[in-house]
Design goal:
The protein starts with a strand and ends with a helix. The protein contains 4 helices and 5 strands, in the order E-H-E-H-E-H-E-E-H. With 110 residues, the protein is an alpha/beta fold. The radius of gyration is 13 Å and the shape is globular. A 5-stranded mixed beta sheet has the order 1-3-2-4-5. Strand 2, helix 2 and strand 3 form a beta-alpha-beta unit.
């Protein structure tokens, strides 16, 4: 997972991606720390090779947190086809199986 900083970098990564999940997190967030290994494990599964995952630290990038109205973390936002408008978002901790189910659900959104 790549940590993205700065609005311009974020916008460029999103615009260059077909299917991307953004993990908005903070270093002090317990549920964020607990979920990180689940995301890493999911990314090792070949079934999810079409999904790019990036992380955004809400304390370091408050402009992005404000843009997407992040009020609670962890927050997962999904983007498709280079659009800066998310197709789906979900708040809170997710187990590995819950993450896989979530990604499969979002993958089907047109």
């Amino acid at each position: 997972m790549e940590i993205i900083t700065g609005t311009e970098n974020f916008d460029n990564v999103i615009k260059d991606s077909k299917f991307i999940m953004v993990d908005f997190y903070a270093e002090w967030c317990g549920p964020c720390k607990m979920m990180a290994p689940n995301i890493e494990d999911m990314m090792l599964d070949a079934e999810y090779s079409d999904l790019k995952v990036i992380k955004v630290n809400v304390d370091n990038d408050m402009d992005l947190a404000d843009r997407y109205m992040i009020n609670s973390i962890p927050a997962l936002f999904f983007f498709k086809d280079g659009s800066l408008k998310p197709v789906y978002s979900e708040i809170g901790y997710h187990t590995l199986n819950e993450l896989k189910t979530l990604v499969n659900k979002v993958r089907d959104i047109k």
